[in-house]
C-alpha cells in the first residue's frame, strides 16, 4: 500500500491545567477522527462521573480500552489526518508521571504544540519548552487556549503571545517560524473551525496551522537505530518488540541485534514481520511507530531501553560519555559523584557525574570556567558521565535522536543535555 501523505509525529505539551487533553480531543473530533456517536457517549460518561465538560479530554483516555487484539503501539498514540499530513499524536494526558512520558514523547516528535492557558506562561510551560528544544523538537506551534475565559479579548491574547515568544526565544527557537494561535478548545473556537468569536484574528486555525509544518528529512542514510519501548509476547505470533524507528530502515528478513541485552553483549535475531497501525509492511522508515516479530529472541532477553541496530553495525554501548548539559531545576548544586536517573531515548539508567570539565556559555559555547567545583541552575557545562549499568548512547552528531537526554531526580527534570563523545565498551 503506497503511503499517500507524509507522516508526522506531534506531541502536545504544556502546563497541567491548560487544556491539553481537551485541545487534543477537540482536534480529533473536528478533524473527523472521532465520530458524533462516540462523542455523545463520552459526554454522557463524563456527566455520569460528575465531569461534565471533560468529554473531549476523555477521547484519548478512552482509547486505552480499545485493545482489540495484541497491542502494536503504545496506547496513547492516535492518528488523524489533515489535507497535507497523516499525524500521530503522541502521549495522551492522564499519566501519573507526565514529564517522564513527555520526555519519551518529545524525543519521538517532529513537532510540538505548546498549550498555554488563559493565565499565560507557567513554570511547567517553561520546563516543557526547554525540554522540547533539548530533545530536538525543531518545530513548535503555540496554542493560547481558553480565550473564552478572557472573553476573546485581543489585548489579553497579545500579552500571552508575547510571553510565549519571549520564552521560546530564550530557549533557542526562531520566533519567526513559530505560529501563535488563539483558541478555545472546549467551545471549539479556532481549533478545527472558526465560530466568529475573534473577528480580530486573521490567521489560521490550529488544524490549518498544522499544515504549515514541514516534514523533517528522514535520516534513512544512517544505520538502523530503534529504541525498544515495550516488549509483548503475543499468542500465536511470538515476541513483539514495539518502538519507533529513529534512523535507517527496519526490513523484513533483516538480521538485527538488541544492545546492550542482558549481559551487555547484545542479542541477535531476525525480523519476521513488521506491523504499523494494524497493517503489515515490508519495511519501516524513520518516524514509523511499529511492532515487529523477531525470530530467535526470547522476551526475557530484551527490555525497554534496549536499542536495535543491524547485526553488522550494532548500537554503541558506552562505559562513559561526555556531554553538554544544562542545569534547569536543581534544589541545590550539582557536584562530582552526583548519580541521578538519565532518560535517554527509551532507557532510564542511573548515571554518575565523574568530572565537571568546564562551565560554558550556553549560547556561544565559550568556556567560562575550567573544572568548577559545582554547577547550579542556569549553568551549562561539559561533563563526563558514567552509566551505572550498560547503556546505549550515541554521539548527537552521528545519531541525533540517541544522543539527547534529560536528567530526573525525585520527580523533577533537573537537567538536560546531549552526548558529544563516548568511550565504547570493549
Offer a concise description of the structure.
With 426 residues, this protein is an alpha+beta fold.
What layout of secondary structure does this protein have?
Layout: E1 7-14, H1 20-30, H2 36-48, H3 55-62, E2 78-81, E3 86-90, H4 98-107, E4 111-116, H5 123-134, E5 139-144, H6 154-171, E6 179-182, H7 206-210, E7 226-234, E8 238-244, E9 250-251, E10 255-259, E11 267-276, E12 279-281, E13 283-284, E14 289-295, E15 307-310, E16 317-327, E17 341-344, E18 347-360, E19 367-370, E20 380-387, E21 391-392, E22 404-409, E23 412-424
Parallel strand pairs: 1-3, 1-4, 4-5, 5-6
Antiparallel strand pairs: 2-3, 7-8, 7-15, 8-14, 9-13, 10-11, 10-15, 11-12, 11-14, 16-20, 16-21, 16-23, 17-18, 17-22, 18-19, 18-20, 22-23
Helix pairs in contact: 1-3, 2-3
CATH H level of the largest domain: which superfamily? Answer: P-loop containing nucleotide triphosphate hydrolases
For this structure, the quaternary state is single chain
The residue ranges in which pLDDT falls below 50 over 5 or more consecutive positions are 62-76, 92-97
Mean pLDDT: 84
Q: Strand portion, in percent?
A: 25-35%
Give an account of the 3D structure.
This protein is of the alpha+beta class and 426 residues long. It folds into three domains: 7-210, Rossmann fold (3-Layer(aba) Sandwich); 226-310, Translation factors (Elongation Factor Tu (Ef-tu), domain 3), CATH 2.40.30.10; 317-424, Translation factors (Elongation Factor Tu (Ef-tu), domain 3), CATH 2.40.30.10. The protein contains seven helices and 23 strands. The protein has helices spanning 20-30, 36-48, 55-62, 98-107, 123-134, 154-171, 206-210; strands at 7-14, 78-81, 86-90, 111-116, 139-144, 179-182, 226-234, 238-244, 250-251, 255-259, 267-276, 279-281, 283-284, 289-295, 307-310, 317-327, 341-344, 347-360, 367-370, 380-387, 391-392, 404-409, 412-424. The strands form four sheets. It has a six-stranded mixed beta sheet, with helices on both faces. A six-stranded antiparallel β-barrel has the order 7-8-14-11-10-15. A hairpin with a 2-residue loop joins strand 11 and strand 12.
Amino acid at each position: 500500500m503506497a503511503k499517500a501523505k507524509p507522516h508526522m509525529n506531534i506531541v502536545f505539551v504544556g502546563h497541567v491545567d491548560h487544556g491539553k487533553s481537551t485541545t487534543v480531543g477537540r482536534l480529533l473530533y473536528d478533524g473527523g477522527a472521532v465520530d458524533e456517536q462516540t462523542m455523545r457517549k463520552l459526554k454522557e460518561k463524563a456527566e455520569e462521573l460528575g465531569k461534565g465538560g471533560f468529554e473531549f479530554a476523555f477521547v484519548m483516555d478512552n482509547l486505552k480500552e480499545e485493545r482489540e487484539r495484541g497491542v502494536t503501539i503504545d496506547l496513547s498514540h492516535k492518528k488523524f489526518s489533515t489535507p497535507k499530513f497523516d499525524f500521530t499524536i503522541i502521549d495522551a494526558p492522564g499519566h501519573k508521571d507526565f514529564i517522564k512520558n513527555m520526555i519519551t514523547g518529545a524525543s519521538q516528535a517532529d513537532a510540538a504544540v505548546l498549550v498555554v492557558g488563559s493565565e499565560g506562561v507557567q513554570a511547567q510551560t517553561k520546563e516543557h519548552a526547554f525540554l522540547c528544544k533539548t530533545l530536538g523538537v525543531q518545530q513548535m506551534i503555540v496554542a493560547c487556549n481558553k480565550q473564552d475565559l478572557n472573553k476573546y479579548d485581543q489585548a489579553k491574547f497579545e500579552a500571552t503571545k508575547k510571553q510565549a515568544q519571549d520564552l521560546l526565544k530564550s530557549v533557542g527557537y526562531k520566533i519567526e517560524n513559530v505560529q501563535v494561535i488563539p483558541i478555545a478548545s472546549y467551545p471549539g473556537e479556532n481549533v478545527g473551525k472558526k465560530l466568529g468569536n475573534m473577528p480580530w484574528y486573521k490567521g489560521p486555525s490550529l488544524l490549518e496551522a498544522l499544515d504549515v509544518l514541514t516534514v523533517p528529512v528522514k535520516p534513512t542514510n544512517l544505520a538502523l537505530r530503534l529504541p525498544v519501548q515495550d516488549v509483548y509476547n503475543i499468542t500465536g505470533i511470538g515476541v513483539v518488540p514495539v518502538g519507533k524507528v529513529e534512523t535507517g530502515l527496519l526490513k523484513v528478513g533483516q538480521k538485527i541485534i538488541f544492545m546492550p541485552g542482558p549481559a551487555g553483549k547484545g542479542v541477535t535475531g531476525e525480523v519476521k514481520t513488521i506491523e504499523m497501525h494494524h497493517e503489515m509492511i515490508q519495511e519501516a522508515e524513520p518516524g514509523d511507530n511499529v511492532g515487529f516479530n523477531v525470530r530467535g529472541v526470547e522476551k526475557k532477553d530484551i527490555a525497554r531501553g534496549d536499542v536495535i541496530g543491524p547485526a553488522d553495525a550494532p548500537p554503541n554501548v558506552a562505559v562513559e560519555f561526555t556531554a553538554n548539559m544544562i542545569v534547569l531545576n536543581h534544589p541545590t548544586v550539582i557536584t562530582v559523584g552526583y548519580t541521578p536517573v538519565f532518560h535517554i531515548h527509551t532507557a532510564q539508567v542511573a548515571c554518575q557525574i565523574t568530572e565537571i570539565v568546564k562551565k560554558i556559555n550556553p549560547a556561544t559555547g565559550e568556556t567560562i570556567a575550567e573544572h568548577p567545583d559545582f554547577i547550579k541552575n542556569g549553568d551549562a557545562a561539559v561533563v563526563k558521565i558514567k552509566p551505572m549499568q550498560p547503556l546505549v548512547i550515541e554521539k548527537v552528531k552521528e545519531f541525533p535522536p540517541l544522543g539527547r537526554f534529560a536528567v530526573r531526580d525525585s520527580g523533577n527534570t533537573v537537567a538536560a543535555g546531549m552526548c558529544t563523545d563516548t568511550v565504547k565498551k570493549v
